[in-house]
Specification:
Helix content: 40-55%
CATH class of the largest domain: Mainly Alpha
CATH architecture of the largest domain: Orthogonal Bundle
Strand order of the largest sheet: 3-5-4
CATH superfamily of the largest domain: Winged helix-like DNA-binding domain superfamily/Winged helix DNA-binding domain
Largest sheet: 3 strands, antiparallel
Number of strands: 5
Strand content: 5-15%
Number of domains: 2
């Protein structure tokens, strides 16, 4: 659960939040005697769609915040078509006629878009990556939350 208590954003279980409140207030009574805190949780971000913490609503907001470039759309198209399989960097480059530097630049731009979106939390990702030992390069795929956001956008 994510919550804002007196202007401070916290994350934890309801029990952990109750313990924190008791310690802040110097209250040693049990959780059943603690007054309900003024908590405002962002409902759209309360439950993650996948293990990466990002929700489809946050992914949608991130992708819609400013128009996607043609290169960003092309990258998402390649990765979405391959979902749920992983796609090697060299295969993305081959399909899009890009160099490694161009791929890195598009990924960097998407990373900046993500981290500059209001409500961003460390650990949110728009794409997954892993090192492929057999091929000696990275491979990529989209999390389900991003697939859902792209579907909502009609991409």
């Amino acid at each position: 659960m994510r919550a804002t208590i007196e202007g401070v954003e916290i994350e934890g279980t309801p029990e952990e939040i109750a313990i924190l409140l008791r310690s802040i207030r110097g209250d040693s009574r049990g959780p059943e005697t603690v007054a309900a805190p003024a908590i405002s949780a962002a409902p759209e971000e309360a439950e993650a769609d996948d293990e990466h913490g990002i929700t489809s609503k946050f992914a949608y907001r991130t992708l819609r915040r400013i128009p996607l470039s043609a290169s960003q759309r092309a990258l998402f198209s390649v990765l979405k078509q391959a979902y749920p399989d992983w796609t090697l960097a060299s295969e993305i480059q081959r399909q899009l006629s890009w160099t490694g530097t161009q791929l890195g630049g598009v990924l960097g731009g998407l990373g900046r878009r993500l981290t500059a979106t209001k409500g961003y939390k460390s650990g949110f990702v728009l794409w997954e990556w892993q090192w492929d030992d057999d091929e000696g390069e990275y491979s990529y795929r989209l999390p389900q939350a991003v697939i859902a956001a792209l579907d909502r956008m009609g991409l």
